[in-house]
Amino acid sequence: MSNGPSDKAIFIAEVVGTGILILLGDGVVANVALAPRLAPQAYNWLLIAFGWGFAVAMAVYAAGGISGAHINPAVTIAMAVNGDLPWKKVPAYLAGQFVGAFLGAAGVYAVYYEGLKAAGMPNVWCTGPGSIINKAAWGYTLKEAGASYIGSFSITNAFIAEIIATAMLLIGVYAITDRENLGPGSNMAPWLIGMLVGSIGFSLGGTSGYAINPARDLSPRIFGALVGTKGLFDGMYWIGPPVIGAIIGGILGALIYKHAVKPFLPKRGE
After folding, report:
1. Given 63, 108, 138, 174, which is the most exposed site by the fewest CB atoms within 10 A?
2. Which residues span the membrane (predicted)?
């Protein structure tokens, strides 16, 4: 009887999968910031959220048959806490994810390095609090659409947002991959997981930038600092919402699915 993939296979698969995730995900951010081929108005949050969703789908298709393509420490840790992954396998997953994310960031740098240098090495690597414009909702006054930014969401608000968004990620991942639920057929699960990430970006991503993945945020942040992007490790934000908040949210989401959904699914044949 097979005991599943070896630690080496898990590590390599997670390097490849997480590398693809960051190459295509941070790549769409760099494209929006540095290389628009249409008027700038055509490049916005909508494009970024779609780009990240497609990036997740491609990453899961690439590595899913080997490691399950966690490509996210919050997923790996949540599954271990939930009893769905042996703790002895966790180090191979985490090592692959953090290494892969660093290499993916290096790939983005290779593709866009002239634009990055010309722009003063802006942050296309990692997340942070969203801005609050000078008038909310439909009351308008964005300097009558020229937008005047006056501040950011607090670290506390961003922390809460990461917990809730990552919990939604894990609930969705469990639901999509659970054969006892309404799980998709025809190898569509990776595509739907990508659309789940896109939906999280559309609906919950504005406060913190929806890291929902410690490796996605921390490894590119380290790479960005090494190549000269300033301010990436100022203060304690970097370890709070995108790392600790995402891990807490992942565990919470896995436990919600395990205790509030799974027990009430009808067994096959009932």
Report:
1. 138
2. 12-33, 45-69, 90-112, 158-177, 189-212, 236-257
Asked if residue 142 is part of any domain, the answer here is: yes
Residue 89 lies in a domain: yes
φ, ψ for residue 123 (rounded to 5)? -80, 100
Q: What are phi and psi of 133, to 5 degrees?
A: -85, 170
What's the burial of 73, exposed, middle or buried (CB within 10 Å: 0-12/13-18/19+)? buried
Question: DSSP 3-state helix, strand, coil percentages of the chain (rounded to 5)?
Answer: 65, 5, 30
Give residue-wise pLDDT tens across range 121-156. 999 999 999 877 655 455 554 454 455 555 689 999
Termini Cα distance of the chain? 29
Closest CA to 101 of 70, 65, 128, 129: 70
Residue type for 88, please?
K
Q: Is position 269 within any domain?
A: no
3-class DSSP assignment, residue 266: coil
E strands, the chain, are 131-133, 149-152
How many C-beta atoms lie closer than 10 Å to residue 183's C-beta? 14
CATH of residue 257: 1.20.1080.10
pLDDT digits (tens, 9 = 90+) for 154-212: 999 999 999 999 999 999 999 999 999 998 888 999 999 999 999 999 999 999 999 99
User: Is the entire prediction scored with pTM above 0.90?
Assistant: yes
> What gap in Å lies between CA 270 and CA 236, rounded to an integer?
51
- Please name every residue paired with 133 in a beta bridge, in sequence order, or none if there are none: 149
Residue 44 corresponds to which tokens in the numbers above? 């916005």
| Spatial separation of the C-alpha atoms in residues 141 and 121, rounded to whole Å | 31
Query: Which residues form the domain of 80?
Result: 7-264
Two structure tokens written together for 246: 């995402």
